[in-house]
Amino acid sequence: MITIHPKTKQAYQLLQAGTLAFARAERQGISVNIDYLNKKKIGIDKKINKLENEFKESKFYKRWCHSVKNGKPNINSNLQLSRYIYDIKRIDPFKYTGKGNPSTDEEALKGLNLPEVNTLLEIRKLKKIKTTYLEGFKKEQVDGIMHPFFNLHLVKTFRSSSDSPNFQNIPKRDKEAMTICRKAIIPRKGHQLLEADFSGIEVRIAACYHKDSNMLKYITDKTSDMHGDMAVQIFKLRKLDRSLKGHDTLRQASKNGFVFPQFYGSYYKNCAINLINWVQLPHGEFKPDTGIEFENGFISNHLIKKGIKCLDDMINHIKVIENDFWSKRFPEYTAWKEMWWGLYQKYGYIDLKTGFRCSGVMNKNDCINYPVQGAAFHCLLWSFIKLDEIIRNENWNSKIIGQIHDAIIMDVHPDELNHVVKTIKQITTVELAKTWDWIITPMDIEMELCPVNASWAEKEKYKI
DNA sequence: GGAACTCGCCAC
DNA sequence: AAACGTGGCGAGTTCC
What we know:
With about 475 residues, the chain is α+β, with helices and mostly antiparallel strands. Helix content is about 55%, strand content about 10%. The protein has helices at about 10-30, 35-55, 60-65, 80-90, 105-110, 115-140, 175-180, 200-210, 215-220, 225-235, 245-265, 270-280, 300-305, 310-330, 330-345, 365-395, 415-435; strands at about 1-5, 30, 145, 150, 160-165, 185, 190-200, 295, 295-300, 350, 355-360, 400-405, 405-410, 445-450, 460. It starts with a strand and ends with a strand.
């Protein structure tokens, strides 16, 4: 059992004011396009039907039917699928779930190399979009407005959560899913949606704790690029040039497959697997002309040439990089982690920069992650409260409608756009750091804007 | 018929 | 020695 509670008056007031500010956003709500929801649902149903019929024609399905008692497997049941694949067909599972059962997730099924099963994955994806998002929105809206809850009392680290519907996990990375789901979310008539995100806030807040000089340099020097440098090291490039083919993908792979997992406490073996998944190489030996293509051709050819011929080679390679990362690149960060873990073991609690105390049984990763995750979110919360206060004092037509951990989402009247943007920028990059003197890194905000009357799927970078 | 569990998958 | 942090939610399943 982990408990976290405010230790200072300011910390208490942050939650107090935050709850009220969130309630105002909840009451304001988010417009949804009901006509679109209805039409899109019919379209997706058709697609699902077509794919299901296609799948039911397959030998795979017919054999599956023979293996079950009533002759009709439920194609939504991963348990039935697992029994057929791993018990009846006796395929050796190469991936297991947390409980030790053979996995039927996307990666496991793709690894089977059964083309018919890919149809099943397509169906799974469409059903997720339909039930969780489109039907979820429809169910929660009243007169075209849904009112997602934003909770401040449910999360161990003192982040927020959202439900009914969850506004914090609407698809973004998968282009098709993103477009389908976000087209349903629209502004009020004559308004436009604006999203303001803190850039790299967790990395910056972590730096406020450990003060590692190399990390501070990466944060302050805008010409430097940590993820680019790691991509060079990981994929043995001469240099990273984002204008070259595939370089951005390699940078993304380094960021999401190595750097962030490392910060959360992952280790070289899992990171190596993440990385080869990102560049679409198999878990065994790398074959020529496979994986993603970049400046130098296929990534497999490049890695083989550099002596990385299989997953095991990659693991050994990443092991060296991990060691270098923590001992050479960020030694002060490493020292802080040890010191912080030692303090917890001695006193039995950790204190967040924002005035909260976290006690209970924690492991080392928890110990290091919680104060960063919590304090980073509190920066968003403080900004949210401040912005809400100004909106009410100045009686804006524009309103806050939601929040996603490090981002504020607004429904803006075009006439107020300039003032809204300037105000957000002032709060997040100037006022915030004045309130908390422990913030020693610059804060930066990025904005995305949708055209007037356009859906959330149509947002574009907005230069401040 | 509902509670509790597992799994898979979406976000930061 | 061990090894990725925080959530919500739908579907299937099992248990009571």
